[in-house]
From TrEMBL, chains A, B:
Keywords assigned: DNA-binding, Transcription, Transcription regulation
InterPro entries for the chain: Homeodomain-like_sf, HTH-type_TetR-like_transc_reg, HTH_TetR, Tet_transcr_reg_TetR-rel_C_sf, TetR_C
DNA-binding region, residue intervals: 37-56
Protein name: TetR/AcrR family transcriptional regulator
Gene3D superfamilies: Homeodomain-like (1.10.10.60), Tetracycline Repressor, domain 2 (1.10.357.10)
Species of origin: Streptomyces cinereospinus
Annotated HTH tetR-type domain residues: 14-74
PROSITE patterns the UniProt entry points to: HTH_TETR_2
Length: 210, 210
């Protein structure tokens, strides 16, 4: 990450940082990624553009961290406690794999339907589809770290004998994550908690008779 | 579809139609959906813009049909025979569900990796993510009819006892289609025939021990 936190004026900095995140997310949602500029974000946040350049090296960096912060805030609200950045999508391990996956997937449904997340996330995702460099940065910094949390949970399930040892966890997670992502991104059909539960059940037990 | 074929000069019309499709696909891949215009397509195809308006009512209509035609051409080449428009992704029914799904999914991998398809398809998909009206038209006219072919194949598999009767075919198909779509659209990981096969196996038999 390109953010370089200053050691002085921490409270004032924190306030500016949050204002910059909010401005960046609002702007990208309104005008799209291509027309979002550091100058525009600075003006909307009420800070000088040097304040932004002191902490981030590009608009892509500002946006990536704004999304990480949004996720951390959502997790904080949900958990009622401080959340570590990047830990917002931690998959619980209660020993009941189906229940754990459903709980995280249901929370993802809620987030995807929250306009505060949805509008800027769509703008960034759309740009990532045609702008390969941004798309790869988006995947490396935001998406893949979340998917790796599912990999860890599925590995632990393999150790417990709840997932077959010959299954590749990185592919397996896509059976329930990707359908949700496609319905949301391409608006192919509605997303609900019941749908999330069905995906997990089908992925675990398959659609062929047992 | 908005195309209104003329009954005279059929051969000349067919040539113009193909030139217009090629121009529309090339242009949208180069400059994106928003900056593609009927005028630009007409100029590139070497026809008057009235020729385009005689057959289609909007640039979205031209593009949708250009993609349908591209798929039909690909199927024609693959099958070595005339293909009906819209039938390009017909799922075979040999009685072996896994083999049938793998054969179609492998062909989809090949199409997604073909630059002639990939570049314009990405441009249209990206616009569909942020432009809700176009996105819904894209899904209704292009994507959902293809997905319904999987629904039919899965229903026939249910009749044959190869898929559980309580499974919803419209959700089940997403277990192997959506992961491929997401890897392609968001470039989260490479797509290969082996990957397509793995998705079908996991979807049919699940990842939990049997």
């Amino acid at each position: 990450m390109a953010r370089k936190p200053t050691s002085d004026s921490t409270r004032r900095s924190e306030k500016s940082r949050r204002a910059i995140y909010a401005a960046a997310l609002a702007l990208v949602g309104e005008v799209g990624y291509a027309r979002t500029t550091i100058e525009g974000v600075a003006a909307r946040a009420g800070v000088g553009k040097q304040t932004i350049y002191r902490w981030w090296s590009s608009k892509a960096d500002v946006l990536m961290e704004a999304f990480l912060d949004l996720g951390a805030q959502a997790a904080e609200q949900a958990a009622g406690q401080d959340a570590r950045p990047g830990a917002e999508y931690a998959v619980p391990d209660t020993g009941d794999l189906a229940a754990d996956l459903k709980s995280v997937l249901r929370a993802t449904v809620d987030e995807l339907l929250d306009p505060q997340f949805e509008v800027p996330a769509r703008a960034l995702a759309a740009e990532g589809v045609v702008n390969e460099q941004l798309g790869r940065e988006f995947v490396t910094k935001l998406l893949e770290p979340q998917l790796q949390l599912y990999v860890q949970r599925l590995r632990s399930a393999q150790d417990a004998g709840h997932v077959r040892a010959d299954v590749d966890p990185r592919i397996a997670l896509e059976l329930f994550v990707s359908p949700l992502a496609q319905r949301w991104l391409q608006r192919t059909a509605p997303i609900t908690h019941a749908y999330a539960d069905t995906l997990v059940d089908y992925a675990l037990h398959g659609i062929a008779p047992r």
